[in-house]
């Protein structure tokens, strides 16, 4: 991927913020979604949005299904999800966006929420999607999985944990701007200007959601401590870590990281990270020595965090999804 940012969009911060707020993510009219509510193994629910077929958007029989795992506080409304929907529709592919718990617009039932290492949730979702793609003979239509930012780390954790068996469920996986070293990514967001630009933005929705979860399940954590939180480390220390079985934020960030498992990956995998991503320090990115032979590294110098705007003013964000989907089209498991 030989990405070059437009001349009028210099630097990682500008490429991140402009792409999310201002760049076009559609080549035409908005595409419709169809929502399904799935019951999770613990009895809670997960909402899955599917790109809905219309007269102008129809997937062919046995068309590939692309499953997109969103990032922290993301959803099917995120700019990158809308852009992937546009590219998928042009290819005649199906697209599904499963929402991590609490991100679909409705509070979930169980005490748990979601976290960067949530590969168990990814596993049952991908197994269900694989079943949907399987025909009466047992043959499976192509299934690809992409994860953005936090969702990509969880997906990469799944691929590493699954090892040789991943290819039984998917034909290829891709991560986009994912902090595969969660500690490095968390420290980057909590430091300097990032703390003011990004950490506060995330906390603006994360803290109210956590307090709503506390109202559902009294005693789950200390509300006063949470209200005093000013960065992601503090939030994860009070809420994410204890609620999901980690000792503290440091333990969570270390154990959630996918980077130590990348050498165990046996499914075709693409890891895309811009080297000027404000959330993911370049020094923390995996090198060829960190990954298996099935892993391809794309590390352009520019792009920001899930940015990759292209074209004339005001730019669009279709270039990156088009490149990732083109890579998927050529992906095939070794035993396939």
Integer-rounded radius of gyration: 19 Å
- List the secondary-structure elements in sequence, H or E: HEEEHEHEHEHHHHHEEH
Average pLDDT level: 94
Low-confidence stretches: none
N- and C-termini, Cα separation? 25 Å
User: What share of residues is helical?
Assistant: 25-40%
Instruction: Tell me the strand percentage band.
Output: 5-15%
Largest sheet: 8 strands, mixed
Number of strands: 8
The number of helical runs is 10
How do the strands line up in the largest sheet?
A: 1-2-4-3-5-6-7-8
Shape: globular
Please explain how this structure is put together.
The model has no long low-confidence stretch (mean pLDDT about 95). Strand 1 (about 35-40) and strand 2 form a beta hairpin. The chain has helices spanning about 10-20, 80-90, 120-135, 150-160, 180-190, 190-215, 225, 230-245, 250-255, 320-330; strands at about 35-40, 45-50, 65-70, 95-100, 145-150, 170-175, 270, 295-300. About 35% of the residues lie in helices and about 15% in strands. Helix 3 (about 120-135) packs across helix 4 and helix 8 crosses helix 9. An 8-stranded mixed β-sheet has the order 1-2-4-3-5-6-7-8, sandwiched between helices. It is an alpha/beta fold and about 325 residues long. The protein is globular and about 55 Å long.
